[in-house]
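Friendly challenge for the regulars: who can give me the structure tokens for this chain first? No prize, just bragging rights.
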Amino acid sequence: MQDAGLARLCRACVPVVPRGGCRAGCVCPVRGTIVGMTELVRHVPGVSALVLDSPHSGTVYPPDFSYACDLQLLRRAEDTHVEKLYDFALERGAHWVEALFPRSYLDVNRDLAEMDSSLFDEPWPGPLPTGSAQLAKVRLGKGLIWRLTDEGLPIYERKLSIAQAMRRIDQCWRPYQAGVAAAVNAAHARHGYSIHINCHSMPAIAGSHATEFPGMVHADFVVGNRDHSTSSPALAELLCEHLRALGYSVWLNHPYKGVELVRRHGDPSVHRHSLQLEINRKLYMDEETLALNAGFEPLKRTLSSLIDSLLVTDPRRL
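First reply, four minutes later:
Bragging rights claimed.
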């Protein structure tokens, strides 16, 4: 059942909060304390052509979540600590957008049509999934609102109302999408091109209901650009080769090609490049305790060198 402490969560959770500062109290499982909360999306404008977003690292669980599964199992869905891996990038002029809520509450890396209608106590009035990729996510229990954990356990013991889902969309999905769009548009308007990195982490071994490749042992990094439809092939190869030169194993477009956020914001024909970057969690954290390990600082130095490279890269010249 949901932790009793979540009763102390802010009941005014709405959509860009400076880290560490808010008025009302919310429980953060990472810190184990009450932290302030006024909004659910953090957006820090930058001045460079580089946009970073972290859609799945949120750890503040809103009060209406009322999940029924074990919290530690649910937390395995988080891309925990990803925002810490990139916190240096803001000082270097990158745009930054971050979800503070967990992906299991609402997954902003989904289209609005990727809704699992079995979650509700009445017919869903909006669009429903039709394409094979959308249907695959919903079948795994990983639609816009998750039904199952990565281990295939039900998240809820109840049906959700349409009003609850609409609130999540209005308070989480819409402001997050607007934040990324604003950042990409600003970067492109200022520089004539944009490079958007959609920042993620992945388990060392895929869970039974996490992807279409259960049990897969992952590489250190996976770069995705939806088979070169959201960025130029040359830019994707630049990322891959930079990481391989540092000794990492890197896969391209398998098993993660990129999902909604790179699809929405990537159009290399007009110099808008979007790539998804997955990092193996074993490189920086203990997947059971979620504690940072000794690999965190070396990995952060690797990402720092990658970001520095991207900051001086004009993809029009590749």
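The two ends are 53 Å apart (CA to CA). The CA atoms of residues 240 and 250 lie 6 Å apart. Your move, everyone else.
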